[in-house]
Amino acid sequence: MEQLSKDRQIIRLEETESTNLYLKQLAREEHLEEGSMVIADFQTVGRGQMGNSWFSSKGENLLFSLLIYPKEVLANEQFIISRIASLAVKNTLDRFTDDIRIKWPNDIYWKEQKIAGILIENDIDNKYIANSVIGIGINVNQQIFPPELSNPVSLWQIIGSVQDRDYILDIFQREFFLLYRDFEKGEIKTIEDEYMLDLYRVNGYYWYEDKNGRFMAKVEDVLPSGHLVLKTIDTEEERKYAFKEVTFVE
Ligand code: BTN
């Protein structure tokens, strides 16, 4: 365990159930400074969004969680944290390849394939976020993925060479805290605008599917709550969706 400064820890583990679980537990037991991180070589129960699991081969990828205490973020406006995390991952991967986009709400895509995933778990205290554990998995050096995973890709598969995971993590930390300082200065609009610019399928009409069937629409907005606003091509009606209420038709 490296002790960076008082209470701020970078904890490196060979194996854990999930870096998010580990960091959440530790943050409950002791006071950790903002920026504390847990990094693992392998997770036995890697967690993804909506109760899915996150599979990553041993020692090849980046699996980490970062703790922050965002000030005055209402629970119903917590999507700003997703925007910051997604942009930080995108800006990091931009150093290595083109064609990185954020697929709403916070998947990171290279072209039509997923290269990174983000799972944010917030503790809410009286309508405000008390702390936020930002879990990130980036496929770095994995060469083969199990066939049951739908569309994964790694940096190795894109670039064709092994990358230093610590170097990528350093870049991520810098990118994250650049955006986070902007957020602390109140520059939320800049972050929202950047997020919109970097969205997957942000321009033009595409097929989507909700509980009533398929329809063609374009992205109008992503609200502070995280809802996606789509405008249908035929009736020009605006429809607002929470995560998992709509899917992108491939
Ligand atoms: C998703 O796309 O479904 C989100 C995946 C998030 C995976 C990361 S890996 C590090 C951290 N620990 C976890 O258990 N999950 C996140």
How does this structure look, described?
The structure is a single chain. By secondary structure, the chain is an alpha+beta fold. It has 2 domains: 2-197, BirA Bifunctional Protein, domain 2, CATH 3.30.930.10; 206-248, Roll (SH3 type barrels). Helices cover 25% and strands 34% of the residues. The chain has 5 helices and 13 strands. The strands form 2 sheets. Strands 1-2-3-4-8-7-6-5 form an 8-stranded mixed sheet, with helices on both faces. Strands 12-11-10-9-13 form a 5-stranded antiparallel sheet, with no helix packed on it. Helix 2 (79-94) crosses helix 4 (165-184). The longest helix is centred in the C-terminal third of the chain and has 20 residues, at 165-184. The site of biotin has 20 residues, from helix 1, strand 4, strand 7 and strand 8. Residues 18-20, 43, 46-49, 52, 54, 63-65, 107, 117-119, 135-137 line the site of biotin (BTN).
Compose a concise summary of this entry.
The protein is of the alpha+beta class. The protein contains 5 helices and 13 strands.
Please identify, by name, the CATH architecture of the largest domain.
Answer: 2-Layer Sandwich
Classification by helices and strands: alpha+beta
Distance between the termini: 43 Å
Per DSSP, the total helix count is 5
Instruction: Report Rg.
Output: 18 Å
| CATH fold-level label of the largest domain | BirA Bifunctional Protein, domain 2
Q: Which cofactors or ions or other ligands sit in this model?
A: biotin
Strand content: 25-35%
Q: Looking at this structure, what is the CATH superfamily of the largest domain?
A: Bira Bifunctional Protein, Domain 2
Shape: globular
Which CATH first-tier class of the largest domain would you pick? Alpha Beta
Strand order of the largest sheet: 1-2-3-4-8-7-6-5
- What share of the residues lie within helices? 10-25%
**What profile does the largest beta sheet have?**
8 strands, mixed
Tally the structural domains: 2
What string, H for helix and E for strand, traces the elements in order?
EEHEEHEEEEHHHEEEEE
